[in-house]
Amino acid sequence: MRHSLALAFTALMLVTSPPAAAQPVTIDLRILAINDFHGYLRASPGGIRTADPNDKTRKITVPAGGAEYMATLVRELEHGHKNTIFVAAGDLIGESPLLSAMFHDEPTIESLSMMGLAIAAVGNHEFDEGKDELKRMQNGGCHPVDNCQGPHPFTGAKFHYLAASTIETATGKTVFPPYEIREFDGIPVAFIGLTLKGTSGIISPASAAGLEFRDEADTVNAQVAELKARGVEAIVVLIHEGGYPTGDYNECPAIAGAIVEIVKKFDRAVDLVISGHTHQAYVCNIDGRLVTSADKYGTLVTAIDVTLDTRTRDVVSAKADNVIVRSNTLAKDPDQTALIATYDKLAAPIANRRAGSVTAALSRVPNEAGESALGDVVADAQLAATASAADGGAVAAFTNPGGLRADVAGKEDGSVTYADLFASQPFRNQLVTLTISGSQIKAMLEQQWLDPKRPRILQVSRGFSYAWDDTKPFGERVIADSMSLNGERVDPAKSYRITVNNYLSTGGDGFAALKDGTAQQFGVYDADALYAYFQANSPISPAPAARIKRAN
Fold first, then answer.
1. What is the pTM of this model?
2. Which domains does the chain have, with CATH numbers?
3. What is the rounded CA–CA span in Å between residue 543 and residue 415?
4. What is the DSSP secondary structure assignment for residue 201, as one 8-state letter?
C-alpha cells in the first residue's frame, strides 16, 4: 500500500511541477558606435545637416554634438538593454579644438573613458604625434616635452585601442592587439579594429617611420581565420575607412568610395562593419552586410541592434539607427560638464585672447584654381613670421590646404580669438624656412597632382603667383614662365628661401621635393604666426584670389 501511495504521489508531482525553462533561441545585443570625434568636447558650431522633415528637397542645420549631450544619449540608448557595448571607428583625437589639443587630447581620452567607451579602432589621426604618443594615450603618463599640464595625472584610456593592420617593422607585431573578444550571455563576439592602408601617406613621414599599414581586407580575412579557429562566429569590423553616400543621415540609396570594394573582399564570416574617416553619415547594405558611419565631431551615435543565435553563436540579423546628439534638447551630463569646466579653467586665458578682427569670413573653400581666402592669409602670416633675416629670411611661403580645417568667421562684431585661429590650424605645426632652387619650387608645385583625383593645391603668399594647365600631363602642368616672385620670373637656377610647415618639410602630402631643402631654420608654430599677423594687421579682409590662375 505504501509503495502504491508513493507511486501515486510521484505521478502527481510529475503532472503538477512546472516544466524546466527552455533556453532562448536568440539573444539581443545593442552596439553603440561613433567615429571621427576629433576632440570636439564642445558641440561643433556646424551641427549636422539633414533633410528638412517637412520638405525633403531642403537641408536644415540641426544643433548637435558635445560630450555633455553625447554621454546622456549613450546612457539613454543603453537603458533597457541587457547586453550593450560602446565602440568607435577611429580618429577620436587629432585635429582637435584648442580645449583638447592644448593638453595633447588628454581631456578627450578622459571624457570618452567616462562615457564607457570599450573598444576603438585606430584612425590616421591617432598617429599625428607618432606611435609613442599614441601608446601614452592608451597607457597614461606625462607628455615627454610639455610634461603634465592637466588638472590631475593622466592615467590613459580605460577603453582598448585595436590596430590589426598597423605593424611595427622592428618587431613585426601590431602596435595594439588586432581584435578583442567580448562575451554576451555566453556567446563570444569579436571586434577587429584597423585603419586605412593609406595612413602613411596622410600622416607626417616622421610619424609613419617604423610603421607599416597593411591592406584592410587581407588583414581582416587573416584575423577571421584565426577567430574561427577559436570558435568565434560573430564578427564585427571597426574600420577607419569609409564612403560617400547619397541620401540623408539614416539612408544609403547609393554609396561610393573605398569602403565598397573593401567590404566586398571581406570573408563572408564578417557580419557587420562600422566605418569612418570620410566624415559622412550612412546606414548601408553593402554586399549583403550592414555598414554604418556616424558623421563627425560627435553629432551622431549609431545604435545597432544585433540578434545572435544561441545554437550557431552567429549573427542572424542586424539593423541600425543613427541618432542625433541633439544639443538643444538633451540634458547635460554633470560629470562631463565638470570635466570640461576643469580643463576650460586652465585653457581659457589663452583661448579667449583677442587676436584681432575680420571684415568678412575667411573661407577655406578654394576657387577653381585652388586658391582660398583663408589660404592667402595663412601663407601671408607665415611669410611675415619668417621674412626677417633673424627669423629665416624667407621670400615666399607655401602651406598645404589639408592643414586648414575651419573658416575664420569672427563673432558678430568681427572679433577673432586665439581659439578661432587655432581651430583653423589645429595640428600645431612648426614653421620651417629652407633653401631650394627655382626648379625645385616648380617640382614641388608639380607634386600637387600626385593624386589626380585629389590634387593638393598649395596656398601661396603675397608676391608669388603662377598658372597651371589641367590638360597637360603630370609633371608639366605648371606653366614655368608664369612663375613669378615680386614681379620677377622665378629663375630655375637661383636659390630661394621659402617657408613651409614641418609636415611639408619632411615630404608630407607627397611633396618630396621639399626634403631636398637645405639650411633649415625652425620658427614659431603656425597658429602663433597667424595670431601675430592678426594682431598686426586687423581688421583683415578677404583678398581677391589672384595668386593662382588656371589656364584652361
1. 0.84
2. 26-342 (3.60.21.10), 352-550 (3.90.780.10)
3. 18
4. G
**Pair type for strands 173-174 and 166-168:** antiparallel
- pLDDT for 21: 57
The H-assigned helical ranges of 230-333 are 258-265
Query: CA–CA distance from 146 to each of 106, 134, 135, 416 (Å)?
Result: 12, 15, 16, 27
Which band of pLDDT confidence, cut at 50, 70 and 90, is reported for residue 213? very high
Distance of CA 152 to the CA centre of its chain: 26
CA 302 to chain centre: 17
517/394 Cα distance (integer angstroms): 13
Residues in contact with 506: Cβ distance below 8 Å, sequence separation at least 6, in sequence order: 204, 205, 206, 514, 515
**What does the alpha-carbon distance between residue 328 and residue 44 come to, in Å, rounded to a whole number?**
13
First to last CA, the chain: 111
Distance CA 452, CA 447 (A): 10
CA-based angle 344:339:423, to the nearest 5? 45
Beta strands in 71-203 (DSSP E): 84-88, 119-121, 160-162, 166-168, 173-174, 179-184, 187-195
- Model pLDDT, residue 19: 52
CA distance 468 to 416: 34
3-state secondary structure of 77: helix
Alpha-carbon gap, residue 257 to 2, rounded angstroms: 81
**Residue 457, C-beta contacts closer than 8 angstroms, at least 6 positions apart:** 366, 369, 370, 371, 401, 448, 548
The answer to whether the CB of 288 falls within 8 A of the CB of 258 is: no
Q: Which residue has the cell 589672384?
A: 546
